[in-house]
Amino acid sequence: MLKRLSTAELKTMVEEKAVVVVARRGCCMTFVVRRLLQYVGADPAVRELEEAHVDDLGHHLAEAGVMLQLPAVFVGGRWFGGTERVIATLVAEELRPLLKKAGALWL
Known about the structure:
Elements: H1 7-16, E1 19-24, H2 28-39, E2 45-49, H3 51-63, E3 72-75, E4 78-81, H4 83-91, H5 95-101
Parallel strand pairs: 1-2
Antiparallel strand pairs: 1-3, 3-4
Helix pairs in contact: 2-4
């Protein structure tokens, strides 16, 4: 069983890693988002949550004004969006420069 992710742990992870993906365990869209990020050269940290933990985290984030949409992608220490945002910025050729600016790409 996966360990519960507290908001403090999420904050630390997001601050330490250039790209973080938080998702439900076994979600097929997590695979898609991870592969799209890897396609442009990023190496995202992926944290999968059990369904019961998703509700807890969603409640805490809602109190902070963040609507939880999983998979949730954080880039450069800030919430970026979900699957749709990753795809849209990739198609618009905005994803790679954004990741480069966040320090997620070496080139």
